[in-house]
Amino acid sequence: MTLKSKEIEAIYRSKVAKKYDLPISHFFGKYKKLAFNDSSLKNGDRVLVFCCGTGLDFSHILRKIGKNGKIIGVDFSSEMLNKAKEKIKKNKWDNIELIQADVTKFQYKIDKKFDVGVCTLGMSIIPEYKSAYYNLVSYVKKQGEIIIGDMQLASGWRARLNPLSIFLAKRYGGSYKGHQNSLELCNIMKKELRGVKKKEFFFNSYFYCIGKIK
Fold first, then answer.
1. 70-75 and 96-100 beta bridge pairing
2. For residues 54 and 76, what is the distance between their CA atoms, to the nearest angstrom?
3. Checking phi first, is residue 55 left (phi over 0); if not, alpha (psi -120 to 50) or beta?
4. Cβ neighbours of residue 154 under 8 Å, at least 6 residues apart?
5. What does 68-86 look like in DSSP terms, one character per residue?
6. Which end of the chain is flanked by fewer CB atoms within 10 Å, N or C?
7. Would you state the pLDDT for residue 182?
8. Quick one: how far is CA 19 from the chain centroid?
9. Which among 74, 144, 81 has a CA at the least distance from the CA of 107?
10. HSE on the CB side for 66, CA within 13 Å?
11. Pairing between β-strand 70-75 and β-strand 206-213 as defined by DSSP bridges
């Protein structure tokens, strides 16, 4: 059963934000790093990050885009963004802007579109994930890149582990339907983007999918 938006918001107003970094970094940090290393991110790129949370993706992105690049991070949770602000201050990152907003309805005035759009561990917990995805795509330029990393339903013999991965993700708003939505999102990317590549990890329960806008 997929949680409703208000239930997701309640989760991220709880203690989850305070204790988010350690388990997420432990389980997914290396996979996130692999995704950004596998991307076309380069020095000076402007990057829009949906569901940026506590900013766990920022260091990986900054290694690629450098001080000449720019990150706009968007998240609905003030608690998660406060943790991101702490990272920004601690690391003296001066090229990151944080915005509190619902990514399904996010609006931002820009002179030119972003080079890359990113969302990791976010789409699978958003009931209106297609709205969030297409909103992200709308802000990225033609030939720009979309990077999605998330939980999914595993297949084959690994499907036996789905109940465990869903159970572990439930604390963060994960669900069977959300994991299933990820498979649909990858199919959408393969149909609508160019040069899509998908890689799977953690018994195929986590993936990243990267493609360019036609």
1. parallel
2. 11
3. left
4. 161, 162, 165, 200, 203, 204, 205
5. T-EEEEEES-HHHHHHHHH
6. N
7. 98
8. 18
9. 74
10. 4
11. unpaired
Distances (CA, A) of 68 to 47, 112, 147: 12, 16, 20
Supply 189's token pair.
């990317």
Number of residues that this document lists for the chain: 214
| Cα angle: 121, vertex 135, 174; to 5 degrees | 25
Domains and CATH numbers, the chain: 5-102+111-213 (3.40.50.150)
Can you spell out the DSSP letters for 140-168?
EEEEEEEEEEEE----GGGGGGHHHHHHH
What average pLDDT score do residues 47-72 get?
A: 98
Residues 6+ positions from 142 with CB-CB distance below 8 Å = 213, 214
